[in-house]
């Protein structure tokens, strides 16, 4: 069971000596309970207490790093069963499945797509994680060649899928140093697979349909020296996946079965419709999801859903404050102020681009609040507008001194004029009306600078 800060505090020597890097023993206990400190930092704890604290304060689900380098995907390290309790932190890796029976050209094309395809959305670049290469030929040399073909294109994580230790060894000979995921160790082959995972330092998927057997297999592989593992609960249908994946998450988070404290694997290609399997995997705790090479619509759906689920529900998605150019604005172009709530920014940006009127967009740091909330909470104030105008040197970009503010910020217009010295134009409340507004107030009347 997880220990509370007070329980941990009772075990500490209470010297308040700061040697652990925290100002008091109580602070250390609180950080330890939150998983943000290491029991080893206090030199006065005996080994038995340290061991107890390690067991009770380590993340309930192990952090597993898939692959290496820039496109490494960290999964696991989750702490809650429900997203609203805190947040889900590490989005699942989504891997396109290719077969070693495909010709080289088709495999390379799939690899190139994973390398190049990017979906920009609310300020983030959404991408697929890598390829899962299946040993459908059953032959080691064919598998090795398929992995080598991917390696020529790939700078992304891979999953090697085979039940043959010989084929797995042939695949790992090509890419073992890049720490691909090995799928899968079973009751029958776990000795050889664990040895391969240990030799190359790769995450090992262990697969069993019974949770007690799965936990036992994970423990055995851990005892054999495998450092990172992923659990494949071998579901026969999606209902079974939900039941098993939820049970694994619950037991791990409640620390009733520490050997189930690993991310979960889902092969979505095994189920129809595959879209339902992908959605289920994203919503129900999968850390690794293998899909077919998805058509663009499904691909966008999967990445959008993953992004939405893995944002912090207590923290709005924010834009970096600054002065943004829409089109090719000049010194006569309008300056519009808005908040840094991403949804507001991108909605407004869409309508501004559609209007084809180039402008400067001043994004103010309202801590991610929308206009209405920011005005009500005092996060969009005349002082903040002035600071933003100064900080981003807006006056240097235009000849005029006229600022368009959002319609919902109308009550602040007088105070903004007073504090900034800029003339204020109150824009529409609805971003959809911004094109018409600028056409009428700026284009038809002429820029105040001209
Ligand atoms: Fe307390 Fe140990 Fe930290 Fe000293 S090092 S302040 S005794 S927790």
What does this structure look like?
This protein is α/β, with parallel strands linked by helices and about 450 residues long. It contains 16 helices and 17 strands. Strands 10-9-8-7-6-3-12-11 form an eight-stranded parallel β-sheet, covered by helices on one side. A five-stranded mixed β-sheet has the order 13-15-14-16-17, sandwiched between helices. It has a two-stranded antiparallel sheet with strand order 1-2. α6 (about 165-175) runs parallel beside α7 (about 190-200) and α12 crosses α16 (about 435-445). It starts with a helix and ends in a 6-residue tail after the last helix. About 40% of the residues are buried. The mean pLDDT is about 95. Bound molecules: iron/sulfur cluster (SF4). Iron/sulfur cluster binds next to α2.
- The portion of residues forming beta strands comes to 15-25%
Neighbour order of strands in the largest sheet:
10-9-8-7-6-3-12-11
Q: Uncertain spans, ≥5 residues at pLDDT below 50? A: none
How many helices?
16
Give the total of beta strands. 17
**Average pLDDT, all residues:** 94
**What coarse outline follows from CA principal-axis ratios?**
globular
Give the distance, in angstroms, between the N- and C-terminal Cα atoms: 71 Å
